[in-house]
Amino acid sequence: MKTSIVGYPRVGSLRELKFASEKYFRKEITETKLQKTAKALRLENLKAQKESGLDFIPSNDFSFYDGILDTAFLLNAVPKRYTSLGLSHLDTYFAAARGYQGENGDVKALAMKKWFNTNYHYMVTEIDDNTEIRLADDKPFTLYQEAQTAGVKTKPVIIGAYTFLKLARYTGKKTAADFVSDTAKAYTEILNKFDSLGAEWIQIDEPCLVMDMTADDIDIFKQLYTEILKSKGSVKLLLQTYFGDVRDCYQNICKLDFDGIALDFIEGKQSLNLIKENGFPQDKILFAGLVNGKNIWRNNYCNTLSVLSELKKSCGEIVLNTSCSLLHVPYTTKNETKLSSETLSYFAFAEEKLTELAELKEIFSSENPIENEKYIRNRQLFSAPRRGGVNPAVQEETAQLTDADFIRLPEFAEREKIQKARLKLPLFPTTTIGSFPQTAEVRANRAAFRKGEISAEQYEDFNKKQIAECVALQEKLGLDVLVHGEFERNDMVEYFGEYLDGYVFTEKAWVQSYGTRCVKPPIVWGDVSRAKPMTVKWSVYAQSLTEKPMKGMLTGPVTILNWSFPREDISLKESAYQIALAIRKEVLDLEANGISIIQVDEAALREKLPLRKSDWKKDYLDWAIPAFRLVHSGVKPETQIHTHMCYSEFADIIQDIYNMEADVITFEASRSDLTILDALKKNHFRTEVGPGVYDIHSPRVPSKEEIKTAIRKMLDRIPAEKLWVNPDCGLKTRGNAETVPSLENLVNAALEVRNENL
Length: 758
Description:
single chain, alpha/beta, 28 helices, 42% helix, eight-stranded parallel beta sheet, TIM Barrel, globular
């Protein structure tokens, strides 16, 4: 048996690429220096994979920002607003990723969306009627040759033609079907060029095949690959799928001339049955995704070997593979010094998953697998109970929940009247989503406290000073509903996890979220409960500084769960309800302490929504929406509950979002050109809403006129009395230099449009 992975993390185990890229953005280093750092990281990854004994090592899984954006540049699908700036190739690339504001022009970044059911974000390709799809870049070939020079034979990785066209946004009259021929030609040229370079295998990533496919979708897929596979030369083509099963197109895939087919047996619920019921072509190699690329728990060798044994009955050659790219897990447990060796023994990050692949290869290839020492050691790990994971009180509280615990009364229309009378906010109330810029001083203060270099009193005094300055700034700007700035928080999930029993935390287990943004997801170790109040003192202090309403800021249970590494020994529903009960206690404490507006963010609500609509209700929405309602169902009618969501497709779950029973919902909207508004209007959305009027993930400052245009566009679809004005997301990652003028323009734009509508 041979082994393979779909892809590897790319930011560096200590986030070296992140820091180098950000220095480049600040013009502190040259492109040469940035490229040198990137190359060193790539070679380090190749070395680790080669030394592990991995048989199929990927190349071109590296990106400075995002793989879909790389593919857009590869295929010449780059809008002219970026190419006409007259910048270098790399700076044009970053302009598309981050936006650009300078002497060469002023352009917004491409839209950004969640990558299927992960917390990774991709840049949405824009294709207009004049786009000429053709091979226009040499990055994949350069990186393949770089690996060759380093003595590593690789399988180059390319985003597939169908997924490229399916995920693109079409801004003219043409659709994906109009670009099939040119796209097929470009991919044929890619294969031929790799063939000439001596590549044996090429991995074509087609994750869109695990989604619901119409007859037209299947036809486009067949057209593309019937044409591409005609002229692939001697190179072998691996069709790589992940994040689910390919039930809509399995037989079509098997009939095409692929040399290998990679299926996900972790999230692909029907993958094994598809093979059992339909067989598997004996002239193709099955790449079996049995090592979880999205979670950090050790692989259960007994379960994996059981599936492999079943597959052997129907398949010829099998390659043991990861279920998806290891981009979604941290680099290595070796950087963790505070967790016990016993705790770490349960975890497998990217580097440890390479070891698991090597061990499984050895075990499966041995005459008596169950007598193998590594197999025995793994079985002992899974048979022994984890210490500290069970809390009977939490399990009892969850079991005793009734239907009444999930119902908010009175109905929204009555609550809205009560809240308007209490809060007395103006038309188009202005607010922010929560966090304010976390400066170097803020981060240094938190780091010093963690290291024991300053006392708790010094730490809190510093934060209070920051909060006071933040409140004063917001009052000066004229915002209507204020926030305390969240200077005490490292991350919107990690912060809460640190206050919740049942979590464990890493030091350097960073995972890329988008571009240079990395997160450090906490790990759900056992039953979850709230040990003590988490935010109350900060919100109460901030409210004491102003007569204006101060929002209490919390992260919702679904987002906390989705942005953690979850347990695999209980259901997601049970974990979500445990977390919801903990956050519910915090909501009620905030209310009891005089906080009249409480925002419970569910930024990741859609993130774990099953990729097939038929699975939405039974596998997710039937517990995710109630979990949110459980958080706030006990508050008084006059307490206004807000929530926030970002960078996902919400149009098809609008009714479910309404059923969350929040009073105000803010959405990311600016990067998607406010397309969410059409869905709100179509569904007669009754909740008050705040679609983001400008993009906070870009350093550019939106003008007052730009924001006024956005507000007026909103008013075409949203009643004036329902509209809030706010940025897309929290301002944590921005600097004060762009935050202050942006908010000044936001407030002034809202004031002028308010006066127009009085």
